[in-house]
Design a protein that fits this description.
- The complex is a heterodimer of chains A (381) and B (321).
- Chain A has 381 residues and is an alpha+beta fold.
- Helices cover 56% and strands 13% of the residues of chain A.
- A three-stranded antiparallel beta sheet of chain A has the order 1-2-3, with no helix packed on it. Chain A has a two-stranded antiparallel sheet with strand order 4-5.
- In chain A, helix 7 packs antiparallel against helix 8 and helix 11 runs antiparallel to helix 14.
- The radius of gyration of chain A is 27 Å and the shape is elongated.
- Chain B is mostly helical and 321 residues long.
- Chain B is 75% helix and 0% strand.
- Chain B is globular and about 85 Å long.
- The chains are: A alpha+beta (381), B mainly alpha (321).
- The interface between A and B is large, with 39 and 45 residues.
Chain lengths: 381, 321
């Protein structure tokens, strides 16, 4: 009724009204702000690419995880080429087969008699796509005895590109799984400590402070050295996830507790208490959901720490062990300077680590800015 | 202030107690002990192993072992190393100095780089140099230290400019005193730069962010409108306020001085505390691990305390009572 009283020019059009009312929730506002943050979107795109590669690792990799060609150890990368030895240009990329010319110096000689064209959707080692559908198809490959080693091989003749792809499954997922354990525990512990305050808070925070007082890496190291050595790859992976969460939950609950301490003085909490809602319900239904913006930002920014920690540990030999692959694990082959000097491609997994961590940092920074109401940039976009 | 200090110091005591208890529990979780490997050796008889066990005190029930260790700890006796047969305090002491040298060098590099670069980036926000520096900073905090260490070692190997790892050359002992300092310095370049640049990256981003926030404040606008030249506005007023949060970080860094960059020390072969704890963990050298954990936690907590004190001293808005 009151709308008819306003002059026509002051009334918003239907579409504008819809748009304004749709972007009211903090999460929607943050999402709009995030879309404008180009660097964060780049980070998100890189991560989407990496995770897709990890999911489709069996398909994209030309060989399987432990396929070792003993006669092609420390083989340099064989990238597909367009120009052959005589200078002729071919439309279809191809590789030459190689033969070990000098085992001591690890020199390989190309056999330029025959060209092996690069084929797509090639029949290779069997595997289960998405862990369900058995199939033989790989994205690309070449006919044996030629090999396509996009990033060279290691000391056992295993294709490094394949191992990097499989390793991405470990390195990229370990942080997220650890979060799945840390976040619920941290929310409950921090929520209770922050909400009740006083003596309960004091006692609960003592335990947290003891854990935080440890240098995190040493604790990680000691705990993983404690793991039994004869467990399988997957079990070790899950145990490492548990260790990561054990170290991470303390700092996280302290953050949540601080936030809850400030939240509980707000009016909606007092109102809920006045209605007579139980403490548990208030914590779970009202207080904790309001910490979601903090949780999202902290979670995104803690995954790079987990990736770096896990790769450091695997590099030393305490994390993921052979025959499983993880990016840190793969780098340890390059730790020997003699090997590294002749086979510099052994350092390539490190670039993947940097890429993933940079992407997470971009995304995390963008999220943090998006949730910060002081940095909102108006209703454009 | 003094009351606050006293209260914090008293609170540290149960904390350190908890830390020692947790270290003890953690190291005892692993199956077997230091003598497990020797036991498997068929040459060594069972009685010898048992005698060694009694010698090391490993046959006592766990809480007695812990109580004895804690008692000795109060006398600053960290026990004996099983592997090296020397008191843990000797072992830690020698390595500690090396780690301190490395970390202090890294700290100096980090701060000398980060503050000016952060100021430069903030005062030229969104310019080409700012974007380039920010990108470099992102890369710096994302690169694992052992990866950059390996890269630098590779470069050093190929070019021969710097020694490849270790702390001293073979002829260290016969060098004159200035030669010794120079020698250690040359070996220090790679590990200290790796640590220093990595830390500088994070610090620089902090400095830039803080300075940007300060430059938005009203008092900066007032100073400019009063006719002050840009230089005193930035250096005399803005930077002083922007540095405040970084002082707390400085306190944390002091706490981390003995933390040791274990992986980097391993990669470059720097004989420091981090390497010691790595070897000790592998060998299950109980008292060395516990001693290192306690010292590491103690310095961390002390660093936190120093950070809080520095913050209270520098920021008049904060009152601890």
């Amino acid at each position: 009724m009151a709308r008819a009283a306003l002059p026509r020019s002051a009334r918003l059009s239907q579409a504008q009204e819809l748009a304004v009312s749709a972007a009211r929730t903090p999460r929607a506002l943050a999402w709009r702000q995030l879309r404008k943050h180009r660097i964060a979107l780049i980070g998100g795109a890189i991560l989407a690419g990496l995770y897709t590669l990890a999911l489709l690792a069996d398909f994209v990799a030309p060989y399987s995880l432990d396929l070792a060609d003993r006669e092609r150890f420390f083989h340099p990368p064989t990238l597909p080429r367009f120009v052959d030895d005589e200078g002729k240009v071919h439309l279809r990329p191809f590789v030459y087969a190689t033969v070990l010319a000098d085992p001591g110096l690890r020199v390989y000689r190309e056999n330029t008699n025959r060209q092996y064209p690069l084929m797509v959707f090639v029949r290779g080692e069997p595997y289960r796509l998405f862990w369900i559908f058995p199939t033989y198809v790989h994205l690309f490959g070449v006919e044996p005895p030629a090999r396509i080693y996009l990033m060279g091989t290691d000391q056992f003749g295993r294709d490094l590109f394949t191992r990097i792809l499989y390793g991405s499954r470990v390195s990229l997922v370990i942080g997220i799984l650890a979060l799945c354990v840390t976040i619920p525990i941290g929310l409950v512990y921090g929520g209770i400590a922050g909400y009740y305050g006083g003596r309960v808070d004091n006692v609960m925070m003592r335990l947290v402070e003891v854990i935080i007082a440890f240098p995190a890496f040493y604790l990680f190291l000691t705990l993983s050295a404690v793991l039994p050595t004869n467990v399988g790859c997957t079990t070790r992976f899950y145990l490492l996830v548990l260790i990561l969460s054990f170290i991470g939950w303390a700092g996280f609950s302290r953050l949540i507790r601080g936030f809850v301490l400030s939240l509980k003085e707000q009016e909606f909490v007092l109102a809920a208490r006045a209605i007579g809602q139980s403490d548990l319900r208030i914590i779970v239904h009202h207080v904790l959901p309001n910490t979601s913006s903090l949780v999202i930002v902290v979670a995104t920014l803690s995954v790079p720490g987990a990736i770096l920690g896990e790769s450091g540990l695997s590099f030393l030999g305490f994390g993921i062990r052979e025959p499983c692959a993880s990016w840190g694990n793969l780098l340890s082959a390059g730790a020997n300077l003699v090997n590294l000097s002749r086979s510099p491609w052994l350092l390539l997994p490190g670039l993947f680590i940097v890429l993933a961590v940079v992407a997470y940092n971009f995304l995390g920074d963008g999220l943090r800015d998006a949730f910060d109401p002081r940095l909102r940039t108006g209703s454009g976009g | 202030m003094l009351r606050y200090l006293a209260r914090r110091l008293i609170q540290m005591i149960p904390l350190i107690f908890g830390v020692t208890l947790l270290s003890f529990i953690v190291i005892q979780l692993s199956p077997g002990d230091f003598l497990a490997e020797i036991r498997l050796n068929p040459v060594v008889s069972g009685e010898t192993v048992d005698a060694m066990r009694r010698n090391f005190g490993l046959d006592q029930p766990l809480f007695i072992q812990y109580a004895k260790w804690l008692w000795r700890l109060l006398h600053l006796d960290f026990g004996f190393s099983f592997a090296y047969h020397v008191p843990v305090t000797w072992l830690i002491g020698s390595r500690l100095v090396n780690t301190l040298i490395l970390n202090i060098a890294a700290l100096v590099i980090a701060w000398l780089l980060a503050i000016p670069i952060g100021i430069h980036a903030a005062t030229r926000q969104y310019s080409v140099s700012d974007n380039a520096l920010s990108l470099t900073a992102y890369l710096g905090i994302s690169t694992p230290s052992f990866f950059s260490g390996l890269l630098l070692l590779f470069v050093a190997f190929k070019t021969g400019w710097l020694p490849i790892g270790g702390m001293t050359s073979l002829d260290y002992d016969i060098l004159p005193w200035y030669g010794k300092i120079l020698d250690v310095g040359r070996h220090l370049v790679i590990p200290a730069s790796v640590l220093g640049f990595g830390a500088a990256a994070g610090l620089m981003r902090q400095m830039r962010g803080n300075l940007l926030e300060v430059l938005r404040q009203d008092y900066v606008r007032t100073a400019r409108s009063k006719g002050l030249a840009e230089r005193p506005v930035i250096y005399k007023h803005a930077v002083r306020n922007a540095i405040n949060p970084l002082i707390t970080l400085f306190g944390f860094e002091i706490g981390g001085l003995l933390g040791g960059a274990a992986i980097l020390e391993n990669v470059v072969g720097w004989p420091g505390l981090g390497r010691l704890i790595l070897e000790a963990v592998v060998q299950k050298d109980l008292y060395v691990v516990m001693g290192s954990l306690v010292i590491g936690s103690f310095t961390l907590v002390l660093g936190n305390l120093i950070a809080d004190i520095l913050l209270a001293l520098s920021d008049p808005r904060i009152r601890y009572d």
